[in-house]
Specification:
Elements: H1 6-17, H2 20-25, H3 29-52, H4 58-64, H5 69-81
Amino acid sequence: MVHLSLEDIEFIKILATSDATLLQAGMNDATRSRLDEQIGVILREYYRENTMNTNTGWTKEFLKYGINEDSGKAAIACARRLGIDIS
């Protein structure tokens, strides 16, 4: 399991509450890279846990930091709109 840093938590919360069009307009290469390489991995594992009943531990980890199921789904949807392969 990838470590969930405070930056990761904030990034996921931003994805959960933001419009993908606005995020994409202000996204630089470093942000895009972080989304692809770090946040994308976390969201893919979270998605698999919730769709395939794998026990990755991300649901508990997200809840510990105030990211509920609806916020997790919203973050996945936003990441997909930004072109990140989640499934």
